Amino acid sequence: MSVAWYRTACVVVAGLMSGCLYGCGDSSNSSFSYAGGMARKIDRSTIEDKVRGSWVGQMAGVAWGAPTEFLYAGRTIPEARVPIWKPEMINLAFLQDDVYVEIPLLMAMRTA
After folding, report:
1. How far apart are the C-alpha atoms of 36 and 70, rounded to whole Å?
2. What DSSP line would sit under 74-91, residue for residue?
3. How confident is the model at residue 18 (pLDDT cuts 50, 70, 90)?
4. pTM of this structure
5. Which of 22, 41, 59, 108 is buried most, with the most CB atoms less than 10 Å from its CB?
6. How confident is the model at residue 98 (pLDDT cuts 50, 70, 90)?
7. How far apart are the first and last CA of the chain?
8. Is residue 79's pLDDT more than 90?
9. What is the DSSP letter of 25?
């Protein structure tokens, strides 16, 4: 797995997160605007889908990057040192503060 692929994955996850944040405006107010001047209304199921997708992406990124965290500060990880992704690694994300501190937010969104 190349460093370029890892960077691309990070950009995709960041895009998903920003897409979620963009869509989290008050959908009952059709006059909502932002710096671009366009209004957009997104239904709850679309927002939930975006949150779930970004959550899984964050979990994958956190679990994948955890073995190298703090080892290459200010440097690019050599391609030979990029961890090999294994699907079972996704569950390791629950042990990372990047993920578990956000669980109360997701629970609050579930009841909202």
Report:
1. 37
2. TSPPPGGGSPPP-GGGGG
3. low
4. 0.56
5. 59
6. confident
7. 40
8. yes
9. S
Do residues 61 and 55 make contact, with C-beta atoms less than 8 angstroms apart? no
CA distance 76 to 109: 36
Tokens of 73: 């500060």
Position of tokens 């500060």?
73
Q: Dihedral of the CA atoms 32, 20, 107, 67 (nearest 10)?
A: -150
* Cβ(24)–Cβ(54) below 8 Å: no
**27 neighbors 42 (Cβ within 8 angstroms):** yes
20-59 pLDDT per residue, tens: 444 454 444 445 556 667 777 888 899 889 988 988 899 9
Sign of the alpha-carbon torsion through 21, 8, 70, 64: positive
Question: What is the phi/psi pair of residue 40, to 5°?
Answer: -145, 135
Q: Tokens 């671009």 map to which residue?
A: 36
Domain ranges of the chain: 3-111
CA distance 70 to 64: 13
74: left (phi over 0), alpha (psi -120 to 50) or beta: left
